[in-house]
Amino acid sequence: MLIDLVPEFLSALEAKDPMAAYRRYVDDHLPVLKAYWHNYIIDLDSPHAESVIERSVAADRKDLHTMLHDFDIAAAAEETIARCEDLFDIDCAIDVYLTVGVGGANAGELVVAGRGIAFVCLEHFTGKANPSTLGLGLKPQQISLWLAHEIAHAVRYLSPKSNSEMKRIVAEMGGYYDYWETGSRASFRELIVNEGLAVAAARKAAPGFEAWDYFGYGRRQFRRLRELEAFLTHHLRSELDNTGLGYRLRYLAGGANPNQRLVGGKVIPERAGYYLGHRMVENTVAQLGLATSLRTEADAFEEFEDLAADQTA
């Protein structure tokens, strides 16, 4: 189901008291927006939340209004959902949210009360970087790419046929996804495979973009990771079965400081694990197909990698 929260958000900005109107907007959609804040910003009851809301309410949104006028986001989202339903063999409840965030992630996944959620924050897809909203300036056409990425995560977490660690952890948490808890409890292997599969899913469901777009990289970072691939693959192999939030921060998080991204004496690019994870799952996706791979346990992917290496030796 497609749920568009953008009109309500914009209406809050036009109210006589935008801060109060924004709080009512949050209250009206509290389960989803509380989860968004907790996983991608800070907790809503944090002392710093108020200043984040103030900045967001006061931000210049001309670029957003222009994009909404020029680009039919709902149609693009509906088309992407239909492609994902076919390619991913979706067999679980997933809602897609169009929203305006507060400058955190451009897109993300949630599970709330056992229901999957894929969302995009439109301030990042106006085609023009905006310092007041922290918007990244991504092209609106890339919304399809990122929706497919996040829908794939929801399938891995919730499909009845999924054998992933993520599904087990979400179930143990009562049907809720927590970025920090899963980052601490899931193996590094599961975390990196999870992102690699989402990249593979986006490439299938939203073809036609530059290779680096699917990873959220620039051209230079993509080239650098190709150069570092052998070095990083060697180092991560011995760590794949370990757990700890540090792995998610080092390999998969944006904004991690250089000390957190130190591997073998080298500071690696942010979110390098998206590239490494995709390389790790490529052969399995080719052999089993995308829908089955999204539901496959993380340990199996190395077996297909080793088999492919033997065949080319």
The proportion of residues forming helix, as a percent range, comes to: 55-70%
Q: How is the biggest beta sheet arranged? A: 4 strands, mixed
Quaternary assembly: single chain
Order of helices and strands: EHHHHHHEEEHHHHHHEEHHH
Output the structural class. alpha/beta
Number of helical runs? 15
Characteristics of this structure?
about 325 residues; alpha/beta; four-stranded mixed beta sheet; two-stranded antiparallel ribbon; 15 helices; about 10% strand; globular; disordered C terminus
How would you briefly describe this protein structure?
With 313 residues, the chain is α/β, with parallel strands linked by helices. It has helices at 6-13, 18-28, 30-40, 49-58, 62-70, 73-87, 143-158, 165-172, 179-185, 188-205, 219-237, 245-251, 272-288, 290-294, 299-312; strands spanning 2-4, 94-99, 107-112, 115-121, 262-263, 266-267.
Tell me about this structure.
The relative contact order is 0.10. The chain has one domain (2-312). It contains 15 helices and 6 strands. With 313 residues, it is an alpha/beta fold. α2 (18-28) packs across α3 (30-40), α6 packs across α7 and α10 (188-205) crosses α13. Strands 1-2-4-3 form a 4-stranded mixed sheet, sandwiched between helices. Strands 5-6 form a two-stranded antiparallel sheet. It is globular.
